[in-house]
Write a structure and sequence with these properties.
Elements (H helix, E strand, L loop, with lengths): L1 H15 L22 E4 L1 H4 L5 H13 L2 H4 L3 E3 L5 E4 L5 E3 L7 H11 L3 E7 L15 H11 L3 E5 L8 H14 L5 E4 L7 H4 L6 E3 L8 H9 L13 E3 L12 H13 L4 E3 L8 H7 L2 H7 L8 E6 L2 E7 L5 E7 L5 E6 L8 E6 L4 E7 L1 E6 L3 E8 L1
Parallel strand pairs: 1-2, 1-10, 2-5, 5-6, 6-7, 7-8, 8-9
Antiparallel strand pairs: 3-4, 11-12, 12-13, 13-18, 14-17, 15-16, 15-18
The structure holds alpha-D-galactopyranose (GLA).
């Protein structure tokens, strides 16, 4: 009897205490959101400030008609420049010329297609394009977004001199939690003050670097620079190496494939940044490749790290929920070359089954290693199972 009381007491204490790693200040909705990295589209990389409700409606339709929605892309995100001013009560005003129907009507439209709408603001006084920021309007803006039916907010770090990002983004976390609507929280402070340290108890994703641009040099510098950050990511909270440049025209096919495979290995948020209305069949096929997306979205949520390197040749791997490994072989050199994956590098047994995920090909059961000819700036992404 006494033993039973003691067990009951211990059970009660256990339910009252947060699990190890959780913090009292965690965003209560965060654990419900982003169980896997968010997927969607964002206006900035292709359209910059040229955003309007017409563009967003057309892109919403394209997410559906291209098959991206069926592949798992959910968010349609408006980046900078949708906002022009505040009214006399301090409420943020969407550009009436570019968004004449208002944000609520646009959110209703996006929701009617089974998708979600995201917006952008800034933690400082001005956005990076010099529109009104949210400093000292955190609670008010979060309420406005919730009232409009917004599902995702990206918060930038321009005009924020002298502010502490951990404190400022903490204010937003609390404001979003108070808003009464589950809103995905994307921290965008370019890695200032190591956001991976405080990001997990503040938002759902945090940018780890400066802005990506549409070139192999920029994409590879950012992507291969993520090593060491893997321990901070997991279900509900992700490192964000920035949005995709796939299909924007300045990377060739091998480079776009490297971008997609690397971001999937990194468990990165996948925000397409191209014009979905006019993309080529190759771009669409790459963005919707189900075997590659399954790596990004794997339920185990473990971000890859570098397991082998020889100058510009590197191998990255991540364990998957089904006990297998996703492995990327990358050739950043300027010429084609042979690369070998030794199964010992990833702790696999002498005999392993390999499947090429980008090209949907079984490579058979191999002994000890796998050797492949790699194009310049190319990738081979394989699933290795016993
Ligand atoms: C910053 C961000 C970008 C984009 C622009 C908009 O540079 O890092 O992702 O949002 O601002 O002005």
């Amino acid at each position: 009897m006494q033993r039973c009381t003691l067990v009951l007491l211990l059970c009660l204490i256990a339910t009252m205490c947060p699990p190890p790693g959780a913090q009292a200040s965690d965003n209560p909705s965060a654990s419900q959101l982003a169980k896997t990295p968010p997927m969607g589209w964002n206006s900035w990389n292709k359209f910059g400030c040229d955003v309007s409700e017409g563009l967003i409606r057309e892109m919403t339709e394209a997410v559906v008609s291209s098959g991206m929605q069926a592949a798992g892309y959910q968010f349609v995100n408006i980046d900078d420049c949708w906002q022009v001013d505040r009214d006399s009560q301090g409420n943020i005003i969407a550009d009436p010329a570019r968004f004449p129907s208002g944000m609520k009507a646009l959110a209703d439209y996006v929701h009617s297609k089974g998708l979600k709408l995201g917006l952008y603001t800034d933690a400082g006084t001005l956005t990076c394009a010099k529109r009104p920021g949210s400093l000292n309007h955190e609670v008010q803006d979060a309420k406005t977004y919730a009232g409009w039916g917004i599902d995702y907010v990206k918060i930038d770090w321009c005009a924020a001199e002298g502010l502490d990002p951990e404190v400022q983004y903490g204010k937003f976390r609390d404001a979003l939690a108070q808003s009464g609507r589950p809103i995905m929280f994307s921290i965008c402070n370019w890695g200032v003050k190591a956001p991976w340290r405080w990001g997990p108890h503040t938002g759902n994703l945090w940018r780890t670097t400066g802005d990506i641009s549409d070139s192999y040099a920029s994409m590879s510098l950012i992507g291969f620079g993520q090593n060491g950050l893997e321990k901070f990511a997991g279900p509900g909270h992700w490192n964000d190496p920035d949005m995709l440049e796939i299909g924007n025209g300045h990377m060739n096919r091998d480079e776009d494939r490297t971008h997609m495979a690397l971001w999937a290995l990194l468990a990165a948020p996948l925000l397409a940044g191209n014009d979905l209305r006019t993309m080529t069949p190759e771009t669409k096929e790459l963005l919707t490749n189900p075997e590659v997306l399954a790596i990004d979205q794997d339920a185990k949520g473990v971000q890859a790290h570098r397991v082998w390197q020889e100058g510009p040749l590197e191998i990255w791997a991540r364990p998957l929920a089904d006990g297998s490994h996703a492995v990327g072989l990358f050739n950043s050199s300027e010429s084609p070359i042979k690369m070998t994956l030794d199964f010992k590098t990833i702790g696999a047994g002498a005999s392993a089954k390999l499947r090429d995920l980008l090209d949907h090909k079984n490579l058979g059961t191999l002994q000890n290693s796998y050797t492949v000819e790699m194009p310049k700036h190319g990738v081979v992404l394989v699933k290795v199972s016993s």
